[in-house]
Amino acid sequence: MLAWLGGVVHAFGAEVGMYNWEWFYFSLFHPLFYWFFLKVSFFTHVELKGDSVVVKNFFTKHTFPARMVSRVLWEGGVDIVLVDGSKWWCINLGGSLLGALAGFPTNRRCAREIEAFAEAKKRERQVGEGDRVVTSPHLNLGFLLGAALVSFTLIYLLGLVLA
Q: Which residues 6+ apart lie within 8 Å of 79 measured at CB?
């Protein structure tokens, strides 16, 4: 955020003002950078919603009933194994050197929570609409559009103040 503000103030302080490409750069590049950074860190995760497990990765979201979970592996990354043998994983719960040195505490905790959730849902014996994996896009375009709009609006307002 400070890089964005510094760049905008510097561009407005130039003798000729701000060029059109700078408006485009500051309005789109920084929000795109933040979107990408959040996409690989915050927006990708595993959710336990209702009676489903939702695995959100970079561009896709996979939803399946918790009763389909056979087991959860945590060494080297969290792998959710379904009764049909397919494996689902989340990119930010993968293996890392630091995780290996610490014994994968986050992966173990996540695996325990998913297994406990799946066992609880199996005991409830709910009748669902089917045992299938639903794959849908997971793009967070609303965040990207909102961030670009806020960035452009702030640049416009700073232009009015600094001009």
A: 72, 73, 87, 88, 89
**Which residues in the chain belong to E strands, given as ranges?**
45-49, 52-56, 60-65, 69-73, 77-82, 87-94, 134-137
CA distances from 116 to 37, 90, 136, 158 (A): 31, 18, 25, 51
Per-residue pLDDT reduced to its tens digit, 63-79: 999 999 999 998 878 99
Hey, what amino acid is at 114?
I
Residue with tokens 């979107």: 35
Tokens found for residue 59: 């561009």
- The answer for residues whose C-beta is within 8 angstroms of residue 83's C-beta and 6 or more apart is 68, 69, 70, 131
Backbone φ and ψ for 138, nearest 5 degrees, come out as -135, 90
**For position 81, what pLDDT does the model report?**
96
Tell me the three state secondary structure of residue 59.
coil
* Sign of torsion over alpha carbons 64, 50, 113, 44: positive
What pTM does this model have? 0.76
